[in-house]
Amino acid sequence: MAAKKFKLISAWRDPDEGLSVTNLRIIPEASLMNELQDLLDNNERWADAIKQEDPEFFAKLARQQTPEYLWIGCSDARVPANEIVGMLPGDLFVHRNVANVVLHTDLNCLSVIQYAVDVLKVKHILVTGHYGCGGVRASMQDRQFGLIDGWLRTIRDLYYENRDVLAQLPTEEERVDRMCELNVIQQVANVGHTSIVQNAWHRGQSLSIHGCIYGIKDGRWKSLNTTISGFEQLPPQYRLRPLGEA
Ligand SMILES: [Zn+2]
């Protein structure tokens, strides 16, 4: 196999556009195309199929996205958001991270929620976990995986809080799956505790947060019956009055 020739430069510049990107390693386009050819071919077929069904589909999408749903799910490659619930691009606003965690210090996730709620005005937030989640499983083990351990730390706390109940389940698979459900319920609560969601409720905006879980083994997506859609479902200690209200 011929060695790939890389050109290492400290900055990439497009002289025509005046754009620059720092510390980019340029790979000749020909070798990149070989590695991605299958995906490029797939994409062409996919775009053609959609256009055949609705010639205006991409033109409409390019003008506007008006999703009613925000999906918060796991990064796991086996849990593709749109396909599971039979939706097309434009129908779901999506945020994914390892083990579908919602942390109050995560600027990424909070920015997604804020934009979805305040600007796109989604009506539903779907927190979707999945059975057999590797992130949840890692939070229950006594070994290190690296940087990810910190990200998963609040799931370990949840595992500790529920250790006695979980210990009564006969197999590790059942304990992991139950923890996957508990994690979803905790993340639903975390979304409800944000000032973003509570301010939407203060404004009278219709917004529900649902806890759902997906089974990789059978492809079924189900509700965990933990929907919250107003203050009365939150403990008083978590209810926040609007900013500036005495
Ligand atoms: Zn997962």
Describe this structure in words.
This protein is α/β, with parallel strands linked by helices. It has a domain at 67-230: Beta-carbonic Anhydrase, Chain A (3-Layer(aba) Sandwich). The chain contains 10 helices and 9 strands. It has a 5-stranded mixed beta sheet. It has a two-stranded antiparallel ribbon with strand order 1-4. The protein has a two-stranded antiparallel sheet with strand order 2-3. Strand 2 (11-14) and strand 3 form a beta hairpin. The longest helix is centred in the N-terminal third of the chain and has 25 residues, at 29-53. The protein is globular. Bound molecules: zinc ion (ZN).
Write the layout of secondary structure elements.
Layout: E1 7-8, E2 11-14, E3 19-22, E4 25-26, H1 29-53, H2 57-63, E5 69-74, H3 81-84, E6 92-97, H4 107-119, E7 124-130, H5 134-138, H6 148-151, H7 153-161, H8 163-167, H9 172-192, H10 195-202, E8 208-214, E9 221-223
Parallel strand pairs: 5-6, 5-7, 7-8
Antiparallel strand pairs: 1-4, 2-3, 8-9
Bound molecules: zinc ion (ZN).
What would you call the structural class? alpha/beta
CATH architecture of one domain: 3-Layer(aba) Sandwich
Biggest sheet, open or closed, and with what strands and sense? 5 strands, mixed
CATH fourth-tier homologous superfamily of one domain: Carbonic anhydrase
Radius of gyration: 22 Å
User: What gap, in angstroms, lies between the N and C termini?
Assistant: 71 Å
Which descriptor suits the 3D outline?
globular
Number of strands: 9
Elements, N to C (H/E): EEEEHHEHEHEHHHHHHEE
